[in-house]
Amino acid sequence: MTDSPVRPVTEAVLDPAAEAVLGPAAEAAPYPVVVVDAAGLPVRLNGAAAALLPGARHGERLAAPRWLADALADPERRPSGGPLDGRSFAAHPSTLSAGRAAWWLVDETALRTAVDELDTERSRTRFLTEASSRLLASLNLERCMGVTARLAVEHLADAAVVIAPSARRSLPVISSDGGEPTARTLRASRLHGVPGLSEALTGFPPVPSRWIDPATLPPWLPPEGFGTVGSVVIVPLPGHGVPGGALVLLRHAEPAAFTESEEHLAGLFAARAGSAMSAARLYAEQNSISDTLMRELLPPRLTDVAGVGFAGGYRPSADTERVGGDFYDVHPGDGAGSDTFAVLGDVCGKGLEAAVLTGKIRNTLHALRPLADDHVRVLHLLNNALLTGDSTRFATLVLASARRTPEGVRLRLTAAGHAPPLIVRRDGTVEEADTRGSLIGVLPEVTARTAHVTLAPGETCLLYTDGITDARGGPLGGEMYGEERLRRALGECAGLPAEAVVERVQMLAGQWAGAEPHDDMAVVAVTAPRGGHRAAGHAAADAPSPRRDGGA
Amino acid sequence: MTAPSGAGTPSGVPARHRIGARMGAGASPSTAEPWARKLWDAVIALDEDAAADVVTGALDSGVDAESVLLDVIGAVQHKVGVEWAADRLSVAQEHAATALNERAVATLSLSHRPEGERRGRVLVACVDQEWHALPARLLAETLRLRGWQVDYLGARTPTPHLVGHIHRTGPSAVCLSSSLSARLPLAHAALTACQAAGVPVMVGGLAFGHDGRYARPLGADAWAPDARTAADRLAAGLPLPPPPHQTVHDLPHLADQEYTLLRRDSRRLVRETLTGLRARHPSVGAYGEEQLERTAEDLGHIVEALTTALYLDEDGLFVDFLGWTAEILTARGVPADSLLPALDLLEEQVRDFLRAPRVLRAGRTALRDHR
Fold this sequence. Notes:
The complex is a heterodimer of chains A (about 550) and B (about 375).
Chain A: H1 19-27, E1 33-36, E2 42-45, H2 47-52, H3 66-73, E3 80-84, E4 87-95, E5 101-107, H4 109-137, H5 141-155, E6 159-163, E7 170-176, E8 182-187, H6 197-202, E9 210-212, E10 231-237, E11 245-251, H7 260-295, E12 309-315, E13 326-331, E14 340-347, H8 351-368, H9 375-388, E15 395-405, E16 408-416, E17 422-424, E18 430-432, E19 450-455, E20 460-464, H10 466-469, E21 472-473, E22 479-480, H11 482-491, H12 498-513, E23 521-527
Antiparallel strand pairs in A: 1-2, 1-5, 3-4, 4-5, 6-7, 6-11, 7-8, 9-10, 10-11, 12-23, 13-14, 14-15, 15-16, 16-19, 17-18, 17-20, 20-23, 21-22
Chain B: H1 29-44, H2 48-60, H3 65-85, H4 91-111, E1 121-126, H5 134-145, E2 149-154, H6 159-169, E3 173-177, H7 184-196, E4 201-204, E5 222-223, H8 227-236, H9 258-264, H10 266-280, H11 282-285, H12 289-312, H13 315-331, H14 340-349, H15 355-370
Parallel strand pairs in B: 1-2, 1-3, 3-4, 4-5
């Protein structure tokens, strides 16, 4: 300032004539005051102001700071504020005579700092809360990784790469540089090319976030087309006793771009992402175990076999279950001239425990299929197997052997402790198959009587469990669906394909029960297909069937 | 309320099928229409072989697979609904025709593999208690043809299965279908559950209104009027669902508990309305057991429509339901105003509520105008 060609600002600043305007109290006040003329140009500064604005010149616009120069020149004289000399000031005007004004500068650095810190803290809390709720939403690993990458790019870095540990030779990787996260896999052997990455993925011993030299970064790591990498940090994602994975944060700017508090924030975020990812991995592992075990217990999809129409429908008692105590199967015969063997049954009890027993019974019956020429013998052998097993449960079931004939379908039906199948004739008459037999798994001897039935084209034989007829509900509530209603419904199903009959029965019983609790419901329809124009060689049209039995 | 057996049972509701295709109203009507006629004949004759031949014939003659799906099979299914509503097709025939159409879809899906760009994974399902699977099936096949990896869960998918599936497979979107407006509360439960799992949900089907007016109040991330639009919408990408929140804030009127109380009491409402009808109307008093049960079912549907209207706070839902029921009844020679006495009896029973009487009055006014 001293070398300025204009006279320097000292305590007798600017216009000594204006001194009277401020008065001795204001002149000596510890707060800066600037008096401006009608045009908004400085004419008098008190001592504090002179010290703060050493560059002020009489009658000249302030060279700096700009916000203050603008405020002083503002004809409307609105309060303002901004940084000055490394601090924060608010400027409040008060009107004087002759169009002049005094601007009072108030140092509010402490307040501003506190407000800024509060804002930062609030946005971090918002970020962590959002992170928690979005990460908690999903139990799917890939999705958790995608959410992690997306959040990291929104709040922490220009690009993020999330790597999950895996027992296999390739690791799932999801990266994002602002767009949709993209998935790829990474060969485990490549991990060693990045310092600190395999340690972060091992999860033990615990490692801190690690800065690495962008020059050592292998080209496959950043998202494609990311461009220059200025700084990279590898953040381990801690899991629940198992490693959660690693998060690689990339920025275009130089390393200083990550402050200490940002790194701290990244750590807090990583802890949340890590627990979400490890929970998702555990869930996926448990699921693949239960899926594998469950696969054998799920009811099969039925299709036409050897010119006989089959359809099945199953509804477990609870919406959360996929299996239960009812079951059905259809086993094609060995070839030309052999019957297709169908079974529908009900194990006492519900849920998974009952389902496990249905699995045993289904396997046993599958093995006994070659003996299906004699249903009573099959029941006898099954009874022995159940009696010698360690289960105290019993079962009821219906066996059906079906064969396509020129007239339609010839059926042998045997009910063991189970409701006899219902036969729907072409004219809508509904008959009960003449078969009776004892429960399986209770008495040492089984007695049963087999019925012989012929279905003409368009006729259906319905096997069902008591979940259908015992369903309670109806429009008035509390009433049983009952066999009478089932028979009436079937009377309208004459001539329908097997799956239409199954759907109709399931729908009526399901709607009858409505939201009321009900037992497992299983239905199998065996139908003699109506003559299509290829009716004579119908079996040939059954592409999905593994065996082709001309039948006719 | 003198509907003949089964006739006034809107549970079938195939008339409400709309797959975005009518006979001759598709993308390439001129090429698809003759095939749609042939398929209709095969389906009505219950000739499965002929139905399969129509599908392969149409494909061989150069009709593209999506058009066969939507302008041939979809158009026939739409006609099945129209014919049922007009009482030219029985409920059982409707089931049979639907089964044949399902098989036609299966034929197409076996004979036609999608080519070209592989897209992401999507989940397609009907909401719980929704039996009309074909619209969802057609959408699933359309998406498959367009390169999506589709998990199709079929009719009446319980919400816990839906959520479990989302966690297991991580789809980028869920498409939920519902044909019956009475399923809207369940649809709401299903879609908020999917959103809570972080996946955007697109809804479709006539339950949401022909213009999708009920999709937004329920918080769906997207709505599509037909399979083609749905596929386009999905290709453009759906927005992320709203962050987890208390879903009751979306429907603040539920705080008055009217839905909850009437829903819990709906069977009593049906019983007392039936008793009232028998006492006041000699013709109903003379009903046999089966006819009474049908009438009770009809009443059940009316009460369900009422509670659904309360759930969304949309009187129009109830009005539309009655209008549609009136058409079904008229087609079966039953005068639509036979519904009026039931509405009066219901109104007497819900007198202490605020919104329910308003909804019932709106319905009655609309029914009077319908005459």
